[in-house]
Write a structure and sequence with these properties.
The protein is of the alpha+beta class. Helix content is 40%, strand content 26%.
């Protein structure tokens, strides 16, 4: 607690911004004394880490290959993070419709069912390239052991999942 007898030594710096033909503008800036940074480096490091950690870099990640695109999509769906999973979904109306069904199905599960899905692992059995821009991933979940297939397509924004292949009648 700071009392009337406590002394806080805050240094002031002033900056001047001038334009030709304009009046001078002076702004005072309060700088953190180096003494505080030396005595409390832990607090400074924690605050710096928090500031850096607040950026949402994961949403901007692109899948570099078919395996990553499919795996990121499946993992985020199992975790219930459908905003991130949507980043790995090929954008078209059919895919969005199937994706909405998947997310609704997830949220109709009870708490225990969602927990089991979050803890389930994904076993990739095969990645088969159709051509240089399309691949089929054969996988199964540790939860149900049923083989599934997922089509992944290369797009300008990375590898994306095409749910039409998985859910449309064959």
């Amino acid at each position: 607690m700071v009392g009337p007898s406590s002394k806080i030594n805050i240094k002031q710096a002033s900056c001047q911004f001038t334009k030709p033909g304009a009046k001078q503008l002076q702004i005072g800036l309060t700088l953190i004394p180096m003494k505080i940074l030396k005595t409390k480096p832990f607090i400074f490091i924690v605050m710096l880490a928090l500031a850096m950690g607040c950026s949402d870099k994961a949403n901007n990640e692109m899948a570099d290959n078919a395996l990553d695109g499919g795996r990121y999509f499946l993992e985020n769906c199992n975790q219930g993070d459908f905003n991130k999973a949507n980043n790995y979904l090929l954008d078209n109306p059919d895919n969005q419709s199937y994706f909405k069904g998947i997310s609704l199905q997830y949220f109709t599960l009870d708490k225990e069912g969602r927990q089991q899905l979050r803890q389930a692992s994904i076993q990739i059995n095969e990645v088969r390239a159709i051509d240089s821009n399309q691949s089929i991933i054969s996988y199964q979940s540790s939860l149900d052991k049923i083989p599934h297939q997922l089509k992944v397509v290369n797009s300008p924004r990375g590898w994306k999942v095409d749910l039409k292949y998985t859910y449309s009648p064959k």
